[in-house]
Amino acid sequence: MTTKDNNNLHFDVSTGLKRVLGRELITDDEVAIFELVKNSFDAGADSVQLYFGDEAIVVADNGSGMSYEDLRDKWLFVAYSSKRTNRPTGDFRNIAAKRHHYAGSKGIGRFSSDRLGEEVVIQSRPKGSAKRVHRLTVDWELFENDSQEHFDKVPVRYVEQHAFDLPPKLHKFESSLKHGTIVTIRRLRRPWSRQRILHLKASLAKLINPFGEEVDAFRIDITAPDEEANDKQLKLQYSKDKEKLLPKDIVNGQIGNFIFSTLQEKTTFIRVIIDGEELFTTLTDRGEVIYRIVEPNPYNHLANAGFRCEIYYLNQSAKSTFTRRVGLPSVQFGSVFLFRNNFRVYPIGEDGDDWFGFSRRKQQGYARFLGTREVIGRADVSGSDEDFQEASSRNQGLIETPAVGQLRKAVMDHCLKRLEKYVVPVSWVDKVEATTDDLSRLMTDPGRARVSVALANLVDNDKIHLLQYSKQLVSLINERSSEFEASLVSLRAIAEKTSDKKMLARLDAAERRFDDLRKSEADARRVADKALKQVEAANLRATTAETEVETERRRAHFLESFVNVDTATILNLHHQVTIYAVDIAQQIENFLAETAGKTSIPRDSILKTLEQMAFLNRKVMSVTKFAAKANFKLDAEKIETDLAAFISDYIEQIARTTGSARLQIGVENTHPGMKIRFNPIDASIIVDNLISNAKKAKASRIQFVLSQGETGSLTIHVSDNGRGLAPGTNRSRIFEMGYTTTQSSGLGLYHVRQALGEMGGSIEPEDQETKGFGFIIKISAKGRRV
Description:
Layout: H1 16-21, H2 29-42, E1 47-52, E2 56-61, H3 68-75, H4 113-116, E3 117-125, E4 133-139, E5 157-161, H5 171-175, E6 180-188, H6 194-208, E7 219-223, H7 228-240, E8 253-254, H8 259-263, E9 268-275, E10 278-285, E11 288-296, E12 308-313, H9 316-326, H10 330-333, E13 336-340, E14 343-344, H11 358-364, E15 375-381, H12 402-428, H13 445-459, E16 465-469, H14 484-497, H15 501-541, H16 567-595, H17 603-626, E17 639-642, H18 643-658, E18 664-669, E19 675-678, H19 680-696, E20 701-708, E21 714-720, H20 748-758, E22 761-766, E23 773-779
Parallel strand pairs: 1-7, 13-15, 18-20
Antiparallel strand pairs: 1-2, 2-6, 3-4, 3-6, 4-5, 7-8, 9-10, 9-12, 10-11, 11-16, 12-15, 13-14, 17-19, 20-21, 21-23, 22-23
Helix pairs in contact: 12-13, 13-14, 14-15, 15-16, 16-17, 17-19, 18-19, 19-20
């Protein structure tokens, strides 16, 4: 074999390269438009106009523009990208906005126009003192004539012109255009129907920014003259029907998706940011910051990549809001999108895509893990192709690198799993939470206890520093709550983590009160049991036996009248009242002992003690109201029966007969039945307090409507025709202990919420269309776990 010296061979390129880099590489029309929009973004534009006419598509931007040299040496230089190189000072991209990384960097995006049409016209004026517009015309069909022809032999027409040439509908944009680039695609390969443009609009909303935040002040507007009449007719129709028209149904106008600014107030979301050597996490639940922590960053490849991730958990209520606002179910919208240099990386996050592995993991623990159907969000990174490079086909995600591997792990371990460790133990255990878009169910003692436990488990790590937490939800709960002891352990761990001496002191005081309360209850039961035994012994010695008369029962839980009160019932009534009376006496004794020798006592301490006694007193009042009619023993802590029927019967047989003639009490029960275990005294306290409030508001009528809610739960709508809330009342505080704007104690609604919390329920205000005020109560079909 022989060789010739100094006669090296080299590659030659035929016109067939155009097809390879154009229609064969970019196989989707939307992706082709994405490429053109990315070029505008990279040129520092803050406004892009997309125009769809009968015979042309126009992509116009106000970016830095290109000079004659830029067009000749860069735009016409195939596969050259100035984004990859160290650019000279005068390069047009150095004049662009302050963007450190670019959405595209392969130097082939210009061929995307071949996918859309047979001819492309480039008009560009660089930023600076230049006045003339440079114009290039490329006829892609000339590259199709002969595949043997050399690529660089096909002519590209160039001329200079005095001004930009845009369609009449874009003249307003043109009048303010001092510099920028206009790409006009002619002889379109496919027509653009209304449906195609709407689909593109929805995709572009996700491409740029689906989260309602400003991203480099970049906006896109669509102008389609042929669809203006249809848009106008649609707006008129919706106006007549008094319905809200969704932006997704209108072709013309700005592209945007602001649903997430609404969702932030209605769902749970986590935000994770990596800043150098530190990783910051903030978890927010329906507008309330639950915690903010910082810890060492374990991802070295992401230290300077601008990593930021937001993931939203969508419960049933949030999903309904999303569908109503966006016009399609969240699962069809997508899951967690990935943005590289502020632009979408396709198809990551699309319906059916599982690039992060959420769905595969969900299959391993359906009831324990979050999957793509429950979450939606975005992850952002910035960086060079060395770390984050898109596949050449533009719709295959990122090429695997060490940085990409750490990106996946960060999203999974520090975003999804962190969100999961809050949602599963706090929200999923309460089925009614799925239909709630506020914190009402978490404001109960059981709800706050769950939040405290979740936070304590999170910060039980020497590397995690707790910067902030919700004082509203992570706080002391009532000593009567069955969750008190578990909550106390969690709160102590949090207080020690934050070196909160005041919180530790409050916890010590609460623990002492709890011990006193438990001792008081034990003493009260001993006294009551002793008295009961003495009476029973006396009865045995009695010479005459009482004849028991069994009357027919009018209801499942209450007897028809008071006339047949047997000895056992009287003893039962006496026993229960004795327990509460001795307990009240012990509370007074404890308070006097604690305050002995003190010249001043904090209001909070007095309020705490009075609240405990007031609650016990309400129990006494409830016992005396219906113990004589109950066919169960009130010395039992809980009963298991149909709660809806119990409440309905109590209102009809007890509340009505013992209430005031000035207040008409109505009840309507359509619930098919919900058998749970609950304390009957708690149920009576709820009804009695709401009736008492109606009386104080000078109402002449109060109505209780019991119906079936989601998953068989019990919903109770309570409404009266009284004076409503007093002027100046803060609605968000009416369930706080001691809060009042009248002469009342401010304990009634607090007791209602506490009692409901023990039953697995919640209460929130409900606006009335007419005079008066209302509440909506929701109680889970499973009640509290006992």
